[in-house]
Amino acid sequence: MKERTEQLEKGQDDPGELDKRNEREVAEYLHHHPDFFSRHEALLLQMTLPHPQNGQAISLVERQLSVMREQKQQLREQLQRLTLAARTNEQLMGRFQQMILCLIDSDDLEQAISYIRDALHEDFHADKVELLLFDATERDNRIARDDARLQPLARILEGRRTVCGHLRPEQLALLFGEGSLDIASAVVIPLCEEGSEPCLGLLAIGSIDANRYHPQMGTMFVNHLGAVMNRIFRAHLGA
């Protein structure tokens, strides 16, 4: 009796452990021998499974059909989501291309800035759009490149990449001014060329929705927008 107790304490011959081990062995065997039931068809008629909704016993064939219907419905829903996403992206691309063309056709910097604000508000439903240009004399939205107020944005400028998500209060205050308290999420696009040339400025797009802009969102469109704006603004400024 003492030996049996010690075995149970060590997990030896424990009925529960044996059942788990046997289940694993059966599952592994069936995995490696998928034709097992074709050679033992009588077993299929004896096997029953609980219905996933009402718990009543159903045959294995009925359960397989139920699983297949569920998988088919999931695939149909996934296809619908992909189709909707494709249509949305197509519409987004159309609006984006129109924006780029209008920027290219702008006569001066004021016109380009005015158009980009209107387009982002109307076509892309931004709640607030602000632009900071560095060392652009006689511009309302200018700021000196060495201005100490830019320190909270130093990492964004050094990274030269679009940043999406929640910004710190001091970053929001510099980018959006008096309306910064209403901004819950934002996109910040550095206007930079590839390489070591200094950035021309920053474009900030804000939303009152905390979930509108987030770090996991795609940035392909806004990166391209930033590159185009950088080229066009430099041309207007003679930079």
Return the domain count.
Answer: 3
Radius of gyration: 31 Å
How many strands in all? 7
Number of helices: 9
Low-confidence stretches: none
Highest CATH level, the class of the largest domain: Alpha Beta
State the separation between the terminal residues, measured CA to CA.
Answer: 93 Å
CATH fold type of the largest domain: Beta-Lactamase
What is the topology, as strand order, of the major beta sheet? 4-3-7-6-5
Order of helices and strands: HHHHEEHHEEHEHEEH
- Please tell me the CATH architecture of the largest domain by its name: 2-Layer Sandwich
Q: CATH H-level name of the largest domain... which superfamily?
A: GAF domain
**What characterizes the major β-sheet?**
5 strands, mixed
What is the mean pLDDT? 81
Class based on secondary structure composition and strand pairing: alpha+beta
Choose one word for the global shape. elongated
Q: Helix coverage percent of residues?
A: 40-55%
Strand content: 5-15%
Tell me about this structure.
It is elongated and about 90 Å long. It is α+β, with helices and mostly antiparallel strands and 239 residues long. It contains nine helices and seven strands, in the order H-H-H-H-E-E-H-H-E-E-H-E-H-E-E-H. The protein has three domains: 1-32; 52-105; 108-237, Beta-Lactamase, CATH 3.30.450.40. A hairpin with a 6-residue loop joins strand 1 (48-50) and strand 2 (57-59).
Summary keywords:
239 residues, two-stranded antiparallel sheet, alpha+beta, 9 helices
Task: Describe, in short, the structure shown.
This protein has helices at residues 2-9, 15-32, 36-39, 41-46, 60-104, 109-122, 154-159, 169-176, 220-237; strands at 48-50, 57-59, 128-134, 142-143, 163-165, 185-191, 201-207. It is of the alpha+beta class and 239 residues long. Strand 1 and strand 2 form a beta hairpin.
